[in-house]
């Protein structure tokens, strides 16, 4: 039987069945289970399975995040070694950022492209400033961050070297923020 057909059969099983049963059935099925194409779409079961077994995870990239980040914040408590977190196309709140920041103290790189439901008072930006002080790289592409939120981030994250603010329409960098940028941002995109 061709591998593609067997992969289709395996994909009809649930994540737990694949990882606990089919994986151990034979070498051929194990080889197919190891193929990255089997896992391009990660459902909540798969993510939870990975999170429960990945306490030493250092980098996590998720393309689509839904459910207001609640499962991610539960998982973040298990990732004290996490250094990079990259999220795009979904939603997240200031409370989620706080939990991630508190539980992932080694976080150096944070990407949140079009993820936030930014509020007028920059709660999300201030959560980054208050709970992710070790950041070196921050990507807020597509956010509604304002000058106040950005100023908080620049003050609260003194190690920032790289900052991506493309498609951030609520910023006016012709004011006093220019002084803060000269204090260490080496790679700036807007």
Automatic annotation (TrEMBL):
InterPro entries, per database record: F-box-like_dom_sf, F-box_dom, LRR_dom_sf
SUPFAM superfamilies the UniProt entry points to: F-box domain, RNI-like
Protein's name according to its UniProt entry: F-box domain-containing protein
PANTHER family attached to this UniProt entry: F-BOX DOMAIN CONTAINING PROTEIN, EXPRESSED (PTHR38926), F-BOX_LRR-REPEAT PROTEIN 21-RELATED (PTHR38926:SF2)
PROSITE patterns, per the entry: FBOX
Alphabetical list of Gene3D superfamilies matching this protein: Ribonuclease Inhibitor (3.80.10.10)
UniProt source species: Lactuca sativa (Garden lettuce)
Transmembrane segments: none
């Amino acid at each position: 039987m061709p591998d593609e057909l067997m992969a289709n059969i395996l994909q009809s099983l649930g994540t737990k069945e694949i990882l606990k049963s089919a994986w151990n059935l034979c070498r051929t099925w194990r080889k197919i289970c190891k193929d990255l194409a089997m896992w391009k779409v990660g459902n909540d079961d798969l993510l939870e399975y990975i999170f429960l077994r990945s306490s030493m995870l250092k980098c996590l990239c998720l393309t689509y995040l839904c459910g207001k980040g609640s499962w991610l914040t539960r998982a973040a408590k298990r990732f004290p070694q996490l250094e990079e977190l990259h999220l795009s196309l979904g939603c997240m709140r200031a409370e989620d950022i706080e939990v991630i920041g508190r539980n992932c103290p080694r976080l150096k790189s944070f990407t949140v492209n079009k993820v936030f439901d930014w509020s007028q008072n920059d709660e999300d930006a201030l959560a980054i400033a208050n709970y992710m002080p070790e950041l070196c790289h921050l990507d807020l592409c597509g956010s509604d961050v304002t000058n106040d939120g950005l100023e908080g981030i620049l003050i609260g994250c003194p190690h920032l070297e790289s900052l991506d603010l493309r498609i951030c329409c609520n910023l006016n960098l012709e004011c006093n923020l220019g002084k803060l940028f000269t204090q260490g941002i080496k790679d700036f995109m807007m």
